[in-house]
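quick one: FO1 bound model?
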Amino acid sequence: MTVSAQDTRTGRVVALCGGIGGAKLALGLSKVITDERLIIAVNTGDDFDHLGLHISPDVDTVTYTLAGVANPETGWGRAEETWNFMKSLETLGGETWFQLGDKDLATHVERTRRLREGECLSTITEDFCKRLGIAVRILPMSEDPVRTHVDTSAGPMPFQNYFVERRCEPEIESIRFEGAESAGVQSDISMALKHPELRCVIVCPSNPYLSVDPMLAVGGMRQMLQGTDAPVVAVSPLVGGKAVKGPMDKVMSELGHTLSHATIADHYNGLIDGLVVDSADSQIPDRVAVAVENTMMHSLDDKMNLARTVLAFADEISARRPMQHERSA
Ligand code: FO1
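yep, here:
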């Protein structure tokens, strides 16, 4: 049974969100905080130009998920898709390794047209959200181009060529976020992070290395997270000691990391006040508060329950936190 109790606390919540895993918690949050108090800041490091179109995969995954039109099997693209465009493209010898459904194609064509007319990505994204009936705010992490590139055993390549075209087969050696340093955090996200009324920041259970790190690399983002009095709470993307899906296990081991909640806590060292994990992990440094909860999200109830748990955990950390003047005394 879905408890419809909505969260009435004031204060903005900013959720940092990448692809599919993060989108599940973003959906849960959007059912608990149902208006513009919730800002979902989305990774755009996966963006790329393809077939002459500007494609923003994580923005679209989150938008489609919150609009209830995402493909339930893949998590990306639209439900009830048709593939006439791809079939025709194949007959013309076009690139078909990146699957673009007919409904999904409209998003890329219209976004590309509006970008070319000089509109910024956040304006376009918010307009699409309004048209899809989404009441919370979904914003790209930056208006400036940030592009994830991976250095692999098969040489350097853009993220989508690694993740989709090469199906994550090449061994990953390092990850770079081109343009991140000179990029600025999207202005509404930045204002929310600096706002005295900020309630908390939530790092959704996205891949820390591929989906969250590009966001942390955007100029000023780390400083804002370290500078806020609001608690920053992350949800570990590991369940049962493994990644839920996607290449996380492979990426983490190829980067030399052990698969543990402690590794996640260390990775976010100095940025997070709390970590929500599916099982206790005694190696987590005690500077990080830990909540042990079910973090596997199958049903909408699971997503809403985890959202409520994370918000309550953040509020608890706030309540325990000495006020600014006490701390500076
Ligand atoms: N992921 C795939 O594994 N294969 C695809 O053909 C594919 C197409 C695609 C089209 C639009 C879109 O928004 C996402 C798409 N994705 C596809 C997912 C995409 O690679 C994302 O970057 C990942 O979900 C990681 O966030």
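The two ends are 48 Å apart (CA to CA).
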